[in-house]
UniProtKB/TrEMBL annotation:
GO molecular function: secondary active p-aminobenzoyl-glutamate transmembrane transporter activity
Keywords from the UniProt entry: Membrane, Transmembrane, Transmembrane helix
Organism: Halalkalibacter krulwichiae
Lineage, top ranks: Bacteria, Bacillati, Bacillota, Bacilli, Bacillales
TM helices/strands, residue ranges: 30-50, 81-103, 123-156, 163-183, 215-233, 263-282, 294-319, 340-360, 380-402, 409-427, 439-458, 470-495
Gene this protein is translated from: abgT
Keyword set includes Transmembrane: yes
Record's protein name: p-aminobenzoyl-glutamate transport protein
Amino acid sequence: MKNSKEKGFVLRSLDTIEVVGNKLPHPVTLFFYFAITVVVLSAVFSAFGLQVNDPVNEGEVLTVKNLLSAEGIEYMFMNAVANFTGFAPLGTVLVTMLGIGIAERSGLISAALRGLVTSVPKQLMTAALVFGGIMSSMAADAGYVVLTPLGAVLFAGLGRHPLAGLAAAFAGVSAGYSANLLLTSLDPLLGSLTQEAAATLNPAYAESMNYAMNYYFMIVSVFVLTLVGTFVTEKIVEPRLGTYKGAITDQVDYLSSVEKKGLWGALIAFLATCAALALLIVPEWGPLRGEDGAIINSPFFSSLVPVILLMFFIPGFVYGKITKSIKNDKDVADQLSDTMATMGAYIVLAFAAGQFVAYFNETNLGRILAIKGAEFLETTGFTGIPLIITFIVVAGFINLFIGSASAKWAIMAPVFVPMMMGIGYSPELTQMAYRIADSTTNVISPLMPYFAIVIAFAQKYDKKIGIGTLISTMLPYSIAFTIIWVLMLIVWMLFGIDLGPGSPIYYQP
C-alpha cells in the first residue's frame, strides 16, 4: 500500500479528534463533572423561576428543584447509595455477564466463531467473516481478539491480502455491533437507560417497553450488513490493498475433535434450553405468559435478563464439561468470579453515572429541557427524517470522542428520549437511531478501546501501518454501513414497521 506524506482532510480531522479525545477526562470523571454541573444549574434556574406546563399531567406546572437548598443537600446525601444501586443498567449488565462470562471463559464463544469461519467454502469466506463478526457482539469483546487476527490468517491462506480479511472481520465486529440474531448484553444495558428516560415523561409507557425493543430491526440488519460488508471488502478495500507480497508464518487454528464434540453438545443444550423456555410462554398455561394471553407484554419479555443468562450459561457449561475446561463447581465459581472482576471499571462508572442521572431527574431539568426542546423543534418545523438523520450524525460525532456506548447513552438518553417523545417519536426509535450512530463510527474512532489492538494485529503484516492507514482502510465500511442503515430506518419510518415486539416507531401517549 502506498502511504502519502500529506494527509487528506478526513485523516487530518480524525487526527484532531484523537488529540482532543485523549485530553478529555476519564468517563467516570466526566460524569462527576456533569453531576456537579446539574447541581449548580438547579440552583441557578430555580432562582430564576424556570417552569413549564406538564404536557402529560394537564394543569400541573414543572419547576426546578434546587439541590443546593437544605432539602436538596439532604436528598443528595440520603440517596447516594440508592442512586448507585438503582442505576438502571447496573443489575442487568452484571446478571447477563454471568451467563456470557461462562460461555466465553469455557471456550465456547471462541470455538463457535472459529468453527463458523473455517468451515465455509472459500467463495463465502468474506461473508462468513463479516457475519461472524456481527454475531460476535453476543459475547461483547470476543470478536476483537478472536476474529480480527483469524480473518487475516484465513485470507493469507487463500492467497488474498491478509489486511482485507482483518478489515472484514473488524467491520463486522465493530461497525455491526448493534445487529444480531440473538439478544445481547447491550440490549438490556441500553434498554434500561431508555426506559428510565421515557419514564420521566410517561411512566406508564415506560412500563410497557421491553429490552427486545429493537430486535426485528437487528435481525434484518444482520443479513443486510453482511452483504454490504462483503461488497465493500471485495470491491473496494481488497482491490485498493493490492497483492500481498510479505511472508506468512501464522497457521489457522482449526477446531480439534474435542472442541467439535463440545460445540455439538452446546448446540443440543442451547436447543433444549430454548424448548424449556418455550414451555413457559407458548402454552396458554405458561407461567410467563400474560394474564390476557398476550405474549408481547407478558412477564417473559420483562424477564429477558435471566433468559439471556440461561441461554449463554447452560450451553457454556455443557461445552466446558465436554472439553474439560470446567471440571467441577470450583471452576464454574472461578470463571464467574473472573468475569465479575473484569466489571470493576463498569461498576465505578455506574456509581458516577447513577448520581448524574438521578440528579437530572430529581431536579426536573431533564423533563423541562425535553419539553422546551420539543416545543422549539415543533416551532422550527425541523422534524421527521431530517431530524433523525441529524441526531444520528450528532451521536456518531460524539462517539469519536467517547467510546463507551453505555456512557454516551447515559448522558444522551435523559435529554433526547423524552424530547423525541414530545414530537411523536418513540423511545424505541430514538434508541435505534443512537445504536446506528454508535456502531458505524466505531471503526474510525482512534479512541475505541480495541483500536490499538487491531493496529497491533495489522502490523504483523505491514510494520508501517498506523492509525491513519487503518482509518482510511475502515472508512468505506463506516460510510457504507451508515448509509444502508439510515435507509433501512427511513423505510421502517415510512411504513411504520415495529422495531421489535410491541415497539412502534411513533409515540402515542
